[in-house]
Write a structure and sequence with these properties.
Blueprint lengths: L1 H15 L2 H6 L5 H17 L2 H16 L3 H11 L3 H5 L2 H12 L6
Helix pairs in contact: 3-4
Length: 106
C-alpha cells in the first residue's frame, strides 16, 4: 500500500506538474488532504493497513468527489453500453444523486 501511495502521488505530480501543490493545499481541500496524508501515516508509521486505507479512501473521496459528475457524463457518452447500465434502477439512483450535486471545482 505504501508503494501505491507513492506511485499515486508521483503520477499525479507528473500529470499536473506544479499545480499539484495548489490542488492539495487549497482551503476547501484541507479536510481531504489531511485525511489522505494521515491515512498514509497510519499505514507507514503504525502499520495498520486497513484503518489507514479507510482514512485514505475518505480523503480521496473528499478531494475528487467534485469530478464525479464529469467522469460519469464522459463515461456515458464514450463507453458503449455504459448509458444502458447506468440507466438501470439501482445504479440510476446513485448516478442521479451524483449529477444533481454538480459543481465546478474552484
Amino acid at each position: 500500500l505504501a508503494l501505491g501511495n507513492v506511485a499515486f502521488l508521483l503520477g499525479l505530480s507528473l500529470l499536473m506538474g506544479s499545480k499539484v501543490v495548489k490542488f492539495f493545499f487549497r482551503r476547501e481541500k484541507v479536510v481531504g488532504t489531511s485525511a489522505f496524508f494521515c491515512g498514509i501515516a497510519v499505514i507507514i508509521l503504525l502499520g495498520w493497513p486497513f484503518v489507514g486505507f479507510i482514512i485514505e479512501l475518505y480523503g480521496v473521496w473528499k478531494l475528487f468527489a467534485a469530478f464525479l459528475p464529469n467522469l460519469i457524463a464522459s463515461i456515458q457518452y464514450t463507453v458503449p453500453g455504459a448509458n444502458m447500465v447506468m440507466n438501470t434502477w439501482p445504479i440510476s439512483v446513485a448516478v442521479g444523486a451524483i449529477k444533481e450535486n454538480r459543481r465546478l471545482p474552484l
